Amino acid sequence: MRSSPPGSPPADPRYGSATITSHLLRYLSVVAAERGHDLGPALRRAGLSEAALSAVGLRISYRQSSQVIREAMSELGDPALGLAVGRRQRVTAWGLVGLGLQASPTLFDAVALGVRYHGLTGSMLDYRLESVPGGAAILPTARYADYELQPFLIEEAFSSTVALIRCALHDDFAPHAVVVRHPCPAYGDEYERYFRCSVSFEAPDDRLVLGTDWLERPLPGADAYTVAQVVGLLESARTLGRERQDLVEGLEVSVARSLPHVPPLTHQAQARAMSERTLRRRLAECGTTYEALVDSVRLVRAEELLTAGDMPLGRVAELLGFSDARTLRRAVTRWFGVSPSEVRRRGAAPARPETAVCARRTVS
To answer: Above pLDDT 90, what percent of the chain?
Structure first.
C-alpha cells in the first residue's frame, strides 16, 4: 500500500467539516475579478456560489476552500497569488476581529487578539504567538499535511497580517523578519519588496517576526470600551463555534468508524440525548445536513482508497457502503469532476518540484 503523495489533499475526515468562514475565498474572488477572471465556475464545482460567500454565518470545509484555491492558482497562472490575496485585505476584512485590532491599546495587544481569535477570521492555518529576542513571532502551523498548498497559505497569512497592521497603524510598518520553510520561488524578490525586511527561505519553521519598537506603539483607534465589547462577542462566537465543530466532527468520526454501514440519524440523536429533529436543527445551524456529512466522509475515504493502491472499484464501493461500482463512479464524478481512474492517476503523480531556489536567502 502507498500513502498519498505530498501534492494530494489530506485524507482526513475532518477536512470535509464545514467549520471555516468564507473570508479567504471572498478576497480570492475579489482579486480574481479585478483581473477579469470569473471564479464562479470553480466555486460551483466545490458546491459554493459567489452569493453564498457573503452570507453571514456561512461555514465551508477545508476541502472546498482548498479546491477553489487550487483551481484559481491554475486558471490565473499566478504562483504568487497568496501574496496578492493577502495584500488586498484591509483591517475591516476581518470583521469583529478587525474592529478589535483597531481598538486595541498597542500593536502587541492587537496581534495577541488576532492570534487568539484567528479561527473566526476564516483562517486555514492555526497560530501561536511566541516571544523572541527583540520582539515576538507569529508562528502558523498547518492543520493538514497539504504540502502543495502550504506556500500559498503562508504567503496569504503573512501578507494579510502586514496589510492589516499598515492599515491600522502606519503604512511604514515592516516586520523584523519573514522566515518560511519552502524554497525561494521564482517570484522571491516580491517578498522583500512587499515586506521590506530580511527574508529567509528553507527555514526550520514559518514565522513572522515583529520588533519591539513596533509592538509597543499605541494604536490611533485605541478604545478600551470597544475592545471589551468585541472580546465579549468573540468569546461567545468562539464558544458556539467549538460546540458546533465538536458536534460535526463527532458525527464524522462515528460515520467513518461505522462504514460501510451508516448509522441512522435517529441512532446518532439518541447517542447524544436529543431528538432527531433537534439534531437536524443543530446541523442546519452548522450549515450542513447529516446526508451532506455522510457524503463528505465517504468522499475522503474514497480518495484515500483510490489513491493508495489498485483496489477493485467493486471492493471500494463495498467499503464505502455503496450498492455497486456504478454508484461509486457517479459519486466520484460528482465529488471530483473526474472518473475514479483519473483520481487514481492524479494520486500516483509525483509532487511537483519547486520552481526555483534562491540560495542566497536560505538559512542553514
So the answer is: 58
